[in-house]
From TrEMBL:
Gene3D superfamilies: Jelly Rolls. It comes from the Bacteria. It holds the Pfam family Cupin_2. InterPro entries: Cupin_2 (IPR013096), QDO-like (IPR053146), RmlC-like_jellyroll (IPR014710), RmlC_Cupin_sf (IPR011051). It comes from Pararobbsia alpina. This is Cupin type-2 domain-containing protein. Residues 33-103 form the Cupin type-2 domain.
Length: 144
């Protein structure tokens, strides 16, 4: 149980360490610690087809957009992104932001982030067809 707990998955200026994944919860939920480096603008605006996401900032702050609502989340603040909503976040500050992220159900987990890291870390410009394929397999869509 919790075999992913020690693995740090880094994608550019964002890193994820899953504390609980779908294998631990029969697919009901996954929870990760996320660190977003200063001045990061990740990920691009997107939606989850069938996954709700809740984030709580532990340190630093994030600018978080859900549909047309934009908020600055500071330590202790949280935000819920219901499935289907377009959301995006960034760290415009000068210190890393650390947050807990919960995905329910656990359709988005360490496998998704590993695959994204593989596509974006392949060298050269990102292969957007491969990126979209990874996203689709895990129930994510880029916002238009």
């Amino acid at each position: 149980m919790n075999s992913t707990r020690k693995e740090l998955i880094t994608i550019g200026s964002l890193s994820m360490r899953f504390l609980v994944d779908g294998r631990d919860t029969a697919g009901h939920m996954a929870m990760a610690e996320m660190v977003v480096q200063p001045l990061a603008k990740v990920p691009p605006p997107h939606r989850h087809v069938d996954v709700d996401e809740t984030i709580q900032v532990l340190e630093g702050s994030l600018t978080y957009r859900v549909d047309d609502c934009v908020r600055v989340l500071n330590a202790g603040d949280y935000c819920f992104s219901p499935r289907g909503s377009v959301h995006h976040f960034s760290n415009p500050g000068d210190v890393p932001a650390r947050a807990l992220v919960v995905f329910s159900p656990a359709n988005i987990g360490p496998d998704y982030f590993r695959e994204v890291a593989g596509v974006l870390g392949a060298g050269g410009p990102p292969n957007m067809d491969m990126m979209k394929s990874v996203m689709e397999r895990h129930g994510l869509e880029l916002a238009s």
